[in-house]
Amino acid sequence: MQQRPQKKIYLILILGLLTAIGPFSIDMYLPAFPDIAKGLHTSIAQVMLSLSSFFIGISAGQLIYGPLLERFGRKKPLYVGLFIYVLASLGCALATSVNALIGLRLLQALGGCVGIVAARAMVRDLFEVTEIAKVFSMLMLVVAVSPIIAPTAGGYITSLLGWRWVFVLLMIIDVLILTGIYFLLPESKKPDPNFSLKPKPILNNFAGIIRHPQFYTYALTAAISAAGLYAYIGGSPSVFMDIFHVSEKQYGWIFALIAMGLIGASQINSVLLKNYTSEQIIKAALACQSIIGLVLAILTIVGWGDLFITIFLIFLFLCCQGFTFPNASALSLAPFGHNAGSASALMGSIQMSIGACASALVSVLQNNTALPMTGVMAFCAMGAFCVFGLGRRIITQKAAAAAVEEEEVEMISTL
């Protein structure tokens, strides 16, 4: 569907804000970890489990919303999910124990993840296939503002008003996004009453998507690569505030500075797509990310990873992520024009499941050094590179086999 330039801008802005609900919910409360631990009489490691529960909620929730977005259209599930998010955010602000916070963060994720699924599906609904990678890069510009604004704002709010007000602000942001959806966002897909919500057809639908070589290759590549980002998000409060002893406000600014790498790379990606294919960009980005991750882990082991070196290498690591994610996401969704909601849900669920495991692994391996974070980051980058290489080989082999089969059929038909 062709969009006028002005219309395209505000569509991308709204879709970007929907996608940013998750990152805002993660990044804004990171500087508050020490205060939350003190306020709820627990440890930072326990508070980190509320981050893991959020990832689990996003992962599971996307599988629920995928079929709902196919059956009821895009906007009705958005209203329901974001209303759940408002109630859960209020509950987080009033939580009196870390276990309650962990549970409420799970519910918050189950509500907020609808924005991620719907935004990706609507990109596939509203834009041409050839535009998708560029649109995802533009979405990342909106999304990437959250790591700049959110932790900085969270640090100041925590120091001035207390950590509970972080969740109050998240609730207000969600209400504003809901208002924008109601007045500005078009319905991109009519409800389909023939789409079954019974478990068996839904599972068969997901199975058909995940068996597609192009989907599982690029969805897993994006997910494993992004898991390095989630390892950084989960481990950075402890690394920077406990090990390097920066303040909450300083942590917010460091987080924002590092996020600039992600923003810059995602925009350079749009320029590179004029001369290079998505596959070429992904291959180069993953190779660089693997080397950077390995260097970061080795420097941590030998004790040469001081504050400034760590910041610089993580900055470069996230630059690579800015090239990998939009291209891999576009390629994984490209074959599914009539099933974009389910494909988007499955891709997001895979990504968040692996991200939750990476974040939880950093928490479990916590040893008062930066190695759990940097080691998991390196492992994820190298794992993504291996999956990409193996997946591309499978896609090439299947394409060659299909071409041979087509030639044989054509020869037989001419006899």
UniProtKB/TrEMBL annotation:
InterPro entries assigned to the protein according to its UniProt record, in alphabetical order: Efflux_drug-R_Bcr/CmlA (IPR004812), MFS (IPR011701), MFS_dom (IPR020846), MFS_trans_sf (IPR036259)
Protein's cellular compartments: Cell membrane
GO biological process, one term: xenobiotic detoxification by transmembrane export across the plasma membrane
Membrane topology: Multi-pass membrane protein
Regions crossing the membrane: 9-32, 44-65, 77-96, 102-123, 135-157, 163-185, 215-233, 253-272, 284-305, 311-333, 345-365, 371-390
GO CC aspect terms: plasma membrane
Xref: PANTHER family: MAJOR FACILITATOR SUPERFAMILY, POLYAMINE TRANSPORTER 2-RELATED
Name of protein: Multidrug effflux MFS transporter
